[in-house]
Amino acid sequence: MATFNADSNTWYHITNSGVGFTGSLGSASASDNGAAAVFIHAFNASDPGDSWQILPISNTTLAIRSKLGTARHQLDVNLNPMESDESRTQPRLAPIDMLSKSQQWTIQPWTDGESWKLQNLANGTSYNLDVHPGVGEPLFMSGTTEELPKREGQHWMFSSMSAINDRAFSTSEIVRLDYRQVPYRTTDANK
Q1: Comparing C-alpha atoms, which of 72, 63, 69 is closest to residue 51?
Q2: Nearest-angstrom CA–CA distance, 25 and 66
Q3: How far apart are CA 120 and CA 102, in angstroms?
Q4: What is the separation of C-alpha 63 from the centre of its chain, rounded to a whole number of angstroms?
Q5: Domains of the chain
């Protein structure tokens, strides 16, 4: 079984086999405390929303960040009652919460040897990141995960673009939990 080996100091172009490398996973700009949309659109190498960092969190999970979303936002999933799939779950960029399972992803190989499935820890392996067919349609977490027939929107591909070389996106600055920043609360037992 192939293993996805990401370089956390690399910007990646992420797409799926439905659109190929002329398309791209893109993101909108996010405010400091707000969420932002993610979508499939025509690839533009100079668009920071088309550049993605894949950052190991543990031996099995990853965080995915957009250059446009800055180092303060990660790919996340959120309940959306308007989503037509039974999961009612769609991805978005959201402010970093390293303890949130909705921001932890796994990348597993499909048997075609060319593409990968993206699964979210909060949804589990019963759901794959997918995109509804058609232009401008949203991404969603699909509960239809069988290998055949091939669902092009679930077959993700990655291509390295350039080195990040930006301290703001450094793994040591984001992943490390700094317990000195956690407020200390006293109780009667430790007064």
Answers
A1: 69
A2: 10
A3: 6
A4: 6
A5: 10-190 (2.80.10.50)
The answer to whether the beta carbons of residues 141 and 98 sit under 8 Å apart is: no
- The string of pLDDT tens digits covering residues 111-135 is 998 999 999 999 888 999 999 887 6
* Beta pairing class for 89-95 and 73-79: antiparallel
Total-model pTM: 0.85
Which residue do the tokens 């995915």 mark?
64
Kindly state the helix (H) or strand (E) to which residue 140 belongs, with its residue range. strand 139-142
- φ/ψ (deg, to 5) at 126: -80, 0
- Report how far apart the first and last C-alpha atoms of the chain are (Å, whole number): 54
Specify the 3-state DSSP secondary structure of 8.
coil
* Amino acid found at 85: D
